[in-house]
Structure formats: structure tokens, C-alpha cells
Amino acid sequence: MLTLDKIYHAAFVLRNVARKTDLIAAPNLSAKTNIYLKTENLQVTGSFKLRGAYYKISQLTPEEASKGVIACSAGNHAQGVALAATKMGIKSVICMPDGAPIMKVENTKHLGAQVELVKGTYDDAHDRAVELQQETGMTFIHPYDDELVIAGQGSIGLEILDQLPDVEAVIVPIGGGGLLSGVAFAIKSLRPEVKVYGVQAAGAASMFKAYHEKKYGCLDKVNTFADGIAVKTPGENTFEMISKYVDDIVTVSEDEIATAILALIEKQKLISEGAGATPVAAALFDKLPIQGKKTVCLISGGNIDVNILSRVITRGQITTGRKATLTIALEDKPGQLTTVSEIVSKCGANVISVHHDNSDVNMAVNSCFLTIGLETRDAEQIQEIRTALTEKGFTLVF
Q1: What is the pLDDT at residue 334?
Q2: Which end of the chain, N or C, is less packed with Cβ atoms under 10 Å?
Q3: CB contact at 8 A, 69 and 139
Q4: Taking Cα atoms as reference points, which of 338, 311, 340, 345 lies closest to residue 328?
Q5: Which segments in the chain show pLDDT lower than 70?
């Protein structure tokens, strides 16, 4: 049974291994809420997962350690287990879904683990890891549904209370629930008046569903670019703890997560992966009653693939009105593009791409479609441009 003493012991064991990551005030993120960022994206291996993995492995018996450890992970737990095992001279095998970001796979190998890629999702990797564990007798290091792993993650809760004694709310990402369980248990044990909230991607809302239906269950599938929390099967132990210690769980969309990642880059100069940005997304899009409260958003990790990051930035720009595409039906005659460009320029926007199409069989022979890509300030400016074009007699297709 998890106790506060065990979390304190985990913090003691981790004192020379895991960083006590900074808690940063982030007033530029929101005018409504006093947001602080717990920067576990700057943790060793780039995520909080080292904490639980190291503490669990540190408590193995000599006989267990001699047989090695095995784990399943989409990437962050894998790196935590690999580093912890290598530091203690223990063999590690990690089963990872074949869709895991290349960066996370390669980093796991570089940290000393033997990696087996498994076709499918995290849950398929989990099944393969269990199979190998039974064959080899290695100790399975569960990414979230384990008391010692939860205790290691709970050390973050102790740090938050130490760094911001008058904290009023804490928002934590949820995949299987180990991080939220540990943080909520630590904070509620010491400061029960502090609100603790969880947030999931809407496309992988397993714990959200279980929490609100008050019934443990699994999803048939998940769909989110936040691979760190793309979990179909939440933890059974974590479900019980979250039901007891957490005040509410909400979900955020892919566009909201992308917007949060972009906001962290532009306003805080921090890189977050999708999972890590979910608390900021929940705060920015008013998902929780935290207005005016000192609120900590736990940025759980920063291990985002650069190719995904590029797409996410673009998605965030579109969502916030920083980029737009307009298609205009024109008479195909000289001067039309010049007029459109002048209107866009007067409105203060910038044309970044132009596509001229006069091949659509449904158009009149002397007509064309002009599609322009724009860099804009916000949604209001986009509407200003649309209005100005319409007033000049142009027909907007979309």
C-alpha cells in the first residue's frame, strides 16, 4: 500500500539521480490564471519517467537484479528504465510500439537497453513484454500501475509544495495514471485543500471515461499525436487512487494541444511533447475552474520528434489564426492578383504562397481559382481580409 513515507523515501533515493526541476512562473501564457510550469521536460532523459523507473529498480533484490528488467513503453518510460538499469549495472529489455518516435527508440538504445519493436500500439508492446517476462524471469517494470513507480512519480508532488507553498491547483497529464496518482496522493496527503486535476487527449480518454462513469474499463482504440499518453488500458490501481484523490479530469483536442505547444515555444522558450502540453491546453482553453488561482501545469516531457513538431507548429498557427488559406473565384484577366495582394497588404498580412488553377471543368472558360496562403496576426485579421475582398467584389470559395 502506498504511503507518504514511501514517497519521501523515493525522493531521498532520487536526490542524486533526478533533477529537482524548476518551477517557472509563466504570466505570459494567460491573463486569467497565475500559471506556473513544473518543467519535467528538462528532467534527465527529457521526462519525469526516470523517477518511478529508478526507484522501482533500486528496490529489487540482488536475485531479481541479476535476472534483469523488462518494460514496455512508447518512449519516455523506456528511456527511464534504460538509464536506471544501466546506472545500476542491470540488463534491460524494452518492448516499444513500432510507431514510437525514432528519436525515443534511438535514445533508449543509446542508454544501454535492448529494444524490441512490436507492431501496433503501446498495449501490443505491453502484451509482448509480459510474454517475454514469463519466458525469462526478468522483473517487469510497469510504466504506471506499480506502487513503487507511483511513489517515484509522487516525488514531484513534494517538490511542487516545496517550491510553491501557496499553490492552489495542479494540473497533470494522464496516460495510464501513474504520474497523476503519485502527485495527487502526495499533495492531498499534505495539503488536502489544493485542487488536483487530470487531463487527457480526447482521442485517448481511457481514464477520463472510467473516472466519470465510476467504472474501470478500456478503450478499443486511441488516436492522438500525444504518444506519451496514448493508452487504451488505464491502470487498475491508479484508477482507484485517482477516483479517491483527484478533483476532476478533463480532455483536450489535438488542436488545443498543438496550440499549447506553440504557446510554450513562443512565450516560454520551452519544448514540450504532446502529452506534456495537455495541462497548458486545459488552462488556456478554460477547461477547469482555475481563474485567478496559482496553478501549476506539470510539463511531463519534452521528447517530441522534430518532424511531428514541425506539423504541430503549423497546426497551432492555423488554430490561433496565425496562418490561413483563402480560395477566391476570379475572372482570369490581368491585374487580379495585384488587386488581391494590395488588399492583403493594406490589412497588414503577408502572402506566403499562391496557386492559380484554371483547369476545373466546372468553371467558366474565362475563370480561375486563386488559392493564397497567408501569415496573419489572428482570426480577427483573417476576417478583416475576407470582408475587404468581398467588398471589392471578389467571391470567396472558402
Answers
A1: 80
A2: N
A3: yes
A4: 340
A5: 360-364, 366
Residue 49 among the catalytic residues:
yes
Within 13 Å, how many C-alpha atoms sit on residue 231's CB side?
28
Q: How far apart are CA 19 and CA 63, in angstroms?
A: 29
The predicted pLDDT at position 362 comes to 66
- Count how many residues are written for the chain: 398
> Is 32 labeled as catalytic in the residue annotation?
no
Handedness of CA 298, 301, 306, 312 (dihedral sign): negative
Q: 218: which 3 cell numbers?
A: 478500456
Q: Which DSSP letter does residue 301 get? A: B
- Rounded to whole angstroms, the Cα distance separating 198 from 218 reads 17
Rounded Cα–Cα distance for residues 203 and 225 (Å): 9
Q: What secondary structure does DSSP assign to 151-212, as a single string?
A: HHHHHHHHHHHHH-TT--EEEEE-SSSHHHHHHHHHHHHH-TTSEEEEEEEGGG-HHHHHHH
| HSE toward the beta carbon, residue 330, CA cutoff 13 A | 24
- Which of the following is catalytic: 73, 92, 300, 323? 300
